[in-house]
Specification:
By secondary structure, the chain is of the alpha/beta class. Helix content is 51%, strand content 16%. α11 links the parallel β12 and β13. It is rod-shaped and about 110 Å long. Its main location: membrane.
Length: 516
């Protein structure tokens, strides 16, 4: 009795679980690499199935990582060419960003004479502008929101400027507003369709941008993000996140705060980014996604790295996550059902017959062979859900128990038939062994598909492993290797009974699960 209990305990241990999870993630990582996504952390794939909120950096993600000057407004008494020459002194030639590049291009198109600064202080996100000294002139170029605070008369000067047309960059001479550039980004060709796909999967997408609210609202409307755009200054715990389309005036260091607050509210957060300052937020998010042109530190902080431009590879990540989730659901259902079936069948059989209706060495072979099959679930063909996944343990347990009960009752019927025919206990053990092996393989086929198991083919790896199992089971029972020898008719009867039982159980199970 003690060896039997020991074997039951061993059979219940989920030995193949870590291997199956790792295999499924690795299988999808290989597939993603062929679709333009590098997986830096395998957990990023399985976490993608649970993702219900995605933060999207506007520049480089929703829009292309380049911009151009849409409009220039001269707000001082000096001539355009003179003011624009002074602007050139505030641009960073050595470490130019996309704003520097856009204004440089604009100045060249206007044939503006470029001048060198006597003293230059580069842009930092803390102060929000670059600064240059030319003679006795103090020049500043940067965020209109921050620089307008230095000139109290700036509100009177801006008049009818349409800030919603693009990003506003202010230019000050001696702390007086001298001009404003309106920069316009180019929306990526795949942005609208991809954002709609993300929405169709039940994921809330929120745009993050350093632009002002008017500009951000305009971009959000163009790409189909529904809801209001708020300033980062108004982003608090009490906000209804589902009403947001975007957050404006965001500095790089704000992104980590946003991710943490959303996680505290119970969201599973995905985050896209490309800059050095995005790294902490990318690392904090459950699914950090570095864009194609991201810095090395951003890529190292992310679980997923896009190998091509655009948003569309994000859909591939989501699909991979759902496939992993469904394979793991199949594995969990199969493991719980098999363990319960084995325990109930052999225990009830022992109580009724006064002997264990299966030899211990057969139990060892059964455990090994079934682990071979269940490991291959990690490579199986499956489907993609269009909603964030959530592990419902109670629901899983109920389904597993219903399947286990069906196969247990079928096994007891087979056991009763064998005893009524006065088949020797050793042969009964071999017949039950065949039944358990085949019912376990059929259980995998039942749980892996929404339709009846005979209508959906598994992956070639699952199919081949099951075929090997069938050959081994048939061979060792036909020649009596480590188990009681059976006649071909007895082997065929056990296999046929297993198949008929699985068909009946599958029909009933699918009717129940469709209703629930």
């Amino acid at each position: 009795m003690l060896p039997f209990l020991a074997m039951m305990f061993i059979a219940s241990i989920p030995v193949a679980m870590p291997s199956t999870f790792a295999l499924s993630n690795s299988f999808e990582a290989t597939k993603l690499s062929q679709e333009g996504v590098l997986t830096a952390d395998l957990t990023g794939i399985q976490d993608a199935a649970n993702l219900n909120l995605l933060l999207l950096d506007k520049t480089g993600t929703i829009t292309e990582n380049k911009t151009s000057v849409f409009k220039w407004y001269n707000l001082c008494q000096k001539a355009d060419k003179e003011v624009l020459s002074y602007v050139s002194a505030t641009l960073d030639e050595k470490n130019s960003g996309i704003i520097d590049d856009a204004i440089f291009t604009f100045l060249k198109q206007k044939n503006i004479k470029l001048i060198k600064a006597d003293k230059y202080i580069s842009f930092t996100s803390d102060k929000g502008y670059s600064q240059a000294q030319v003679g006795n002139l103090d020049l500043k170029l940067g965020s209109f929101k921050q620089l307008s605070q230095l000139d109290t008369t700036s509100i009177e000067k801006i008049g009818q400027i349409s800030f919603e047309n693009g990003r506003s960059v202010a230019f000050l001479i001696n702390n007086k507003l001298a001009g404003i550039f309106i920069l316009k980004d180019t929306i990526r060709p795949d942005a609208i369709t991809t954002l709609q796909e993300i929405k169709n999967r039940g994921i809330k997408a929120i745009m993050l941008t350093g632009d002002n609210q008017k500009t951000a609202q305009s971009i959000a409307a163009q790409v189909g993000l529904q809801g209001k755009v708020i300033s980062i200054n108004n982003f608090t715990e009490n906000l209804n996140i589902h009403e947001l389309a975007g957050i404006a005036d965001v500095l790089p260091e704000d992104k980590l705060f946003i991710v943490k607050l959303l996680q505290q509210k119970g969201f599973i957060v995905g985050m896209t980014g490309d800059g050095v300052n995005d790294a902490p937020a990318l690392k904090q998010a459950e699914v950090g996604i570095a864009m194609h042109n991201a810095t090395d530190i951003a890529k190292k902080s992310s679980k997923m790295v896009l190998l091509q431009d655009g948003l569309s590879p994000i859909i591939k990540i989501l699909d991979a996550g759902h496939r992993v989730y469904h394979r793991m659901t199949t594995w969990s259902l199969t493991k719980l059902s098999r363990t319960a079936e084995l325990t109930m069948l052999l225990t009830i059989g022992f109580i009724c017959l006064n002997y264990i209706p299966m030899a211990l060495n057969a139990m060892v072979i059964y455990t090994i062979m079934n682990n071979m099959v269940t490991m291959m679930i990690g490579t199986d063909n499956t489907y993609v859900s269009y909603h964030p996944e959530n592990w419902d343990i109670l629901k899983l347990a109920k389904r597993a128990f219903s399947l286990a009960s069906g196969f247990m009752l079928s096994g007891l019927a087979l056991l009763y038939f064998c005893t009524q025919k006065q088949i020797a206990p050793a042969k009964i053990g071999a017949i039950i062994y065949i039944y358990l092996v085949f019912s376990a393989m059929l259980l995998v086929l039942i749980t892996r598909s929404k339709t009846y198991f005979w209508k959906s083919l598994p992956s070639k790896y699952v199919y081949i492993t099951q075929l090997i199992n069938i050959v081994i089971t048939f061979t060792i029972t036909a020649i009596g290797l480590g188990i009681q020898q059976l006649a071909l008719s007895e082997i065929g009867l056990a296999i046929l009974f297993s198949l008929l039982a699985a068909i009946i159980i599958d029909v009933i199970y699918k009717k129940i699960t469709v209703k629930n």
